[in-house]
């Protein structure tokens, strides 16, 4: 499998930091049959940034455009880590050993048997994919996420 298949499209949606805006965005997605697979919310004083992973990013982008949300797309990795103390630390140490910076991370909603899935934004995705595959760390593809 080509390494580029392990690049996951993350959509960051910017919303006003006021009551009901997150609920409204979630409802727009739900009404259009968009199921969130991973979700993170970071807030600033006046706005929030939701980072989402979905099974069908093209459809999600259509819905967001139609409903006039401001968003950007980024490349992230979905990495299985052992569901035990130190599971995430092991993966992060493998990445650090290759001098790759992790810009941010969050967990996926879906859990796999014996493991959890984390989303990683790194400064060099190609190098991170090679390093993790060399150590037999399972990475998910967009297709894997669609079937969770």
How many domains? The number is: 2
Number of helices: 5
- The name CATH uses for the topology of the largest domain is VC0802-like
SS class: alpha+beta
Low-confidence stretches: none
What string, H for helix and E for strand, traces the elements in order? EHEEHEHEEHEH
The CATH architecture of the largest domain is 2-Layer Sandwich
Mean residue pLDDT? 92
**So what's the overall shape?**
globular
Largest sheet report = 7 strands, antiparallel
- In terms of DSSP E residues, the strand content is 35-45%
CATH superfamily of the largest domain: VC0802-like
Q: What is the CA-atom radius of gyration, in angstroms?
A: 16 Å
Q: What is the total tally of β strands?
A: 7
> What is the CA-CA span between the terminal residues?
19 Å
> Which percent range fits the helix content?
25-40%
Characterize the quaternary organization of these chains. Answer: single chain
CATH class of the largest domain: Alpha Beta
Write the layout of secondary structure elements.
Elements: E1 8-16, H1 21-31, E2 36-43, E3 47-54, H2 57-66, E4 70-82, H3 87-97, E5 102-107, E6 115-122, H4 125-134, E7 139-140, H5 142-146
Antiparallel strand pairs: 1-3, 1-4, 2-3, 4-6, 4-7, 5-6
